[in-house]
Design goal:
Bound molecules: protoporphyrin IX containing FE
Largest sheet: 2 strands, antiparallel
Number of strands: 4
Strand content: under 5%
Low-confidence stretches: 1-27
Number of helices: 12
CATH topology of the largest domain: Peroxidase, domain 2
Number of domains: 2
Order of helices and strands: HHHHHEHHEHEHHHHE
CATH architecture of the largest domain: Orthogonal Bundle
Length: 329
């Protein structure tokens, strides 16, 4: 009887896991301190390298956080985004604005000198994202490590990445595919509390938003519109960069959500987190709106990042520890 019921519970558990995570999502596990005996200085080497680059170029923090996200959503967190070559992920349109490649390269060179063939590029990306958040005065969380680097990188798969014109339903679906729920979506998009966007990704909101007239997106605060139009003139430089979190772009804090409440979101996809009821309630929780259970943005961000960082992990069977991050062994 005991055996029968425990078997039943096991089957239920397996079913629950299978429905929560598609088979491609989790195949290998990671753990905190994976390198503590094989390469004890692994994490501090990454941290010191990120610190060094951040000192001369603070905007690198946002670049590294975004790079990890773009890695995880295509082929899982396996450093496939780093691979050079024709038609690799790196060459796909959504990845053209990524930055921070030299930081990963620098860290890998030092790690190979300290412990050759031990630390994966996928782990460097996950650690560098964490360090970037901490350097911008956000939370510091434990990153489970032990990822393998992938051998496949296809530019065509970058379509999995969410786009700035995606509806909330599309955004939710894209996140759900990887076992990330609506709260994770709102929390992780909160990563836009640091960094910038090129005018090309939101300028349409300022001028020809509706097909019926020469008007702006009505969800933009009317007092904010002239400011945005000055930053991104109609026929100006499409590559010009604008802070995603107006007034606090260098700090990892919850003001991004306050800006959404005030109609000061930059990307259409960001502002929609406030207009859609299912995501708005999480934004309100981060803002501590009375009557709702308050959520601490930084704490939740660390939690959701650990989930995101475990997407689609490779194993020894379909992965490797690259010797250099930009080419397979
Ligand atoms: C619906 C989901 C998302 C959409 C549509 C989206 C879209 C974008 C776009 C269009 C940009 C500007 C890119 C450029 O100008 O080159 C951007 C920047 C950025 N994104 Fe996202 N993003 C999403 C989710 C995320 C997530 C989950 C993270 C991190 C956890 C993230 C982190 C960043 C950062 C830090 C930047 C600034 C990059 C820099 O300054 O170099 N984004 N995002």
């Amino acid at each position: 009887m005991y055996q029968k019921s425990s078997m039943f519970i096991m089957i239920l558990t397996l079913l629950a896991v299978a429905t929560t995570f598609p088979s491609s999502v989790q195949s290998q596990s990671t753990r905190v301190g994976f390198y503590s005996s094989s390469c004890p200085r692994a994490e501090s080497i990454v941290t010191e390298t990120v610190q060094k680059h951040f000192k001369s170029s603070p905007s690198i923090a946002a670049g590294l956080l975004r790079m990890h996200f773009h890695d995880c959503f295509v082929q899982g967190c396996d450093a496939s985004v780093l691979l050079n070559g024709e038609n690799t992920e790196k060459t796909a349109v959504p990845n053209l604005g990524l930055r921070g490649w030299e930081v990963i390269d620098d860290a890998k060179t030092q790690l190979e000198a300290a412990c050759p063939g031990v630390v994966s590029c996928a782990d460097i990306l996950a650690l560098a994202a964490r360090d970037s958040v901490f350097l911008t005065k956000g939370i510091n969380w434990n990153v489970p490590t032990g990822r393998f680097d992938g051998r496949v990188s296809l530019g065509s798969e970058a379509k999995n990445l969410p786009g700035p014109r995606d509806s909330i339903d599309v955004q939710k679906t894209k996140f759900q595919t990887f076992g990330l729920n609506t709260q994770d979506l709102v929390t992780l998009v909160g990563g836009h509390t640091i960094g910038t966007s090129a005018c090309q990704f939101f300028r349409y909101r300022l001028y020809n938003f509706t097909t019926t007239g020469n008007s702006a997106d009505p969800t933009i605060n009317p007092s904010f519109l002239p400011q945005l139009r000055t930053l991104c003139p109609q026929d100006g430089d499409a590559a010009k960069r604008v802070d995603l979190d107006t007034g606090s772009a260098a700090l990892f804090d919850a003001t991004f959500f306050k800006n959404l409440e005030d109609g000061r979101g930059i990307l259409e996809s960001d502002q929609k987190l406030w207009t859609d009821a299912s995501t708005k309630s999480f934004v309100q929780q981060f803002l501590g709106v009375r009557g709702l259970q308050a959520l601490n943005f930084n704490i939740e961000f660390g939690r959701s990042m650990v989930k995101m960082s475990n997407i689609g992990l490779k194993s020894a069977a379909n992965g490797e520890i690259r010797r250099i991050c930009f080419a397979i062994n």
